[in-house]
Write a structure and sequence with these properties.
The structure is a homodimer of 305-residue chains. Chain A is an all-alpha fold and 305 residues long. In chain A, 71% of the residues lie in helices and 1% in strands. Chain A has a single domain, classed as Farnesyl Diphosphate Synthase (Orthogonal Bundle). The radius of gyration of chain A is 19 Å and the shape is globular. Chains A, B: Its EC number is 2.5.1.1, 2.5.1.10.
């Protein structure tokens, strides 16, 4: 694996910077503030969606685009749709009745910068916009592809995906000792894994890869998704709030079962490293065109925010 | 118009009962409670989505289906998708940070029966399910039709539709005197009119009516949408909470500008009656196949909840 790390230093920061600029530009146009009573709604969406955020999910879509040579503009539109879902979930999740967070991506959360009602509506609006973007013919000229993207994103974000995982997370706070590693793993596969999985699945759909040819990408997505969450738990347990951009130490404070509370720091770190190695091995059928995906896998392990 | 009222007594209650049963049955299957940490999420969705509610929007879709002879199962699936959006918006709108309502459809609101976090997630989950239902090939075999339905529903429910209207409504509470009849009309066209408009638009899309042939249906939708909201304001000002199924007198209490506060009760009632007459006139090109739509228009005026 040593040869594969060689070019990370060069390709990853440039790829992050490029996709971040493209996503910000897309949102700047999509979320132009109207001159009427909806102005605050748009300002709240812009506050949450523009500037800040790693843009890991759009980067994954654009990295998949490199595998299958589909149009980059389409990759950015799909990445923006996923980011609409991701950002709406952060806005709602930060609310007082959920995680009650004051800071996100180094800025006040939406309900702190505006108010709770605006946070509910900004989240709901970004949720609808995700599907409006995918249903636009500019995203893909083939409506079969559009419908498959929409069906998969709805599943990945709804009660059998992200929203279902968030509910499990709430239920976990009262479940206590009965919440073991298998349960945390299943919870995280829904809560964060499903949407990360969709990023790669979207690449395969737009690349017109048949379902039976998607096994490697699905394995990669599964492994980096889980590694991502383990590292999230490690950052919460050990990270610095200023670097992470949001409050840390919340899990232990809430007495929540996490990968770190169940495995301990060093086993959790080893598990994340093993998953990332395994993710890279899932890409064995690809050559240099998958170097960006390999670099992203290592970034997931080494990130500090 | 006297001849058109003739059969209302017969067709409308039967049509309401039939579509209500079909929508409840659809949700009963769609929202089967899983045996895991998501059980409460599904119970909350069932609480809000099954039993109760007029099902006016699904009835409008099935009435449009009678105009264009498309498959009734498809009409029910589209009606259920719209109802997912409608119900999610009620769940979020009832929350303490929004309208702070304890009762809805004669039952405790979701955040009262469960908790606020569950209400946020149940709303978000129904929102995603709306698009999952439309993206299912069972809704329509032609992906062009599916994509058009999805694009229109996303627009009607997002920041240029329902969610945008809700934001205007919040902004109105602080706008005071500057909020005139034109502003209230525009607000309501977004807040409730856009989704009612989509019910008829969906019928035209599935009936493969070209955009230029949809003028009459759009006029009908516009007029009953506005009449519906004026009657809502009248029920809030004059209605009985037990009959209406939710708290009344809230608008005056909040000092909100409404059709009733701006026009007075008798002018508002006359305006609603005029709009319903106009809605029926928009159907002049149709014969008996539009009798259900005509009966619905009159129901909008005469309803007591």
């Amino acid at each position: 694996m040593a040869t594969e790390t060689m070019s990370d230093g060069a390709i990853l920061p440039a790829a992050f910077a490029r996709v971040s600029g493209e996503i910000d530009a897309f949102f700047d146009t999509l979320l132009a503030v109207p001159d009427d009573g909806r102005a605050q709604l748009y300002r709240a969406m812009r506050h949450a969606a523009i500037g800040g955020g790693k843009r890991l999910r759009p980067l994954l879509v654009s990295a998949a685009c490199a595998l299958f040579n589909f149009d980059r503009d389409r990759a950015i539109r799909v990445g923006a749709a996923i980011e609409c879902i991701h950002v709406y979930s952060l806005i709602h999740d930060d609310m007082p009745c959920m995680d009650d967070d004051d800071m996100r991506r180094g800025k006040p959360t939406v309900h702190r910068a505006f108010d709770e009602a605006t946070a509910v509506l900004a989240g709901d609006s970004l949720h609808a916009l995700a599907f409006e973007v995918l249903a636009d013919p500019a995203t893909h000229p083939d409506p079969y592809v559009q419908v498959e993207l929409i069906a998969e994103l709805a599943r990945a974000s709804g009660p059998v995906g992200m929203a279902g995982g968030q509910m499990m997370d709430l239920a976990a706070e009262t479940a206590g000792d009965t919440f073991d590693l298998a349960a945390v793993t299943r919870l995280q596969q829904l809560k964060t894994g499903a949407l990360i999985g969709f990023c790669l699945e979207a690449g395969a759909i737009m690349g017109r890869v048949r379902p039976e040819g998607r096994t490697g990408l699905r394995g990669y997505a599964h492994d980096i998704g889980l590694a991502f969450q383990i590292v999230d738990d490690l950052l919460d347990a050990e990270g610095d709030a200023a670097a992470v951009g949001k409050a840390v130490g919340k899990d232990a404070g809430a007495g929540k079962a996490t990968f770190v509370s169940l495995m301990g720091v060093s086993r959790a770190r080893a598990q994340a490293a093993m998953l990332v190695d395994q993710a890279v091995q899932h890409l064995h059928a690809f050559g240099a065109e998958a170097d960006l995906l390999r670099a992203i896998a290592r970034f997931v392990l080494e990130r500090d925010r």
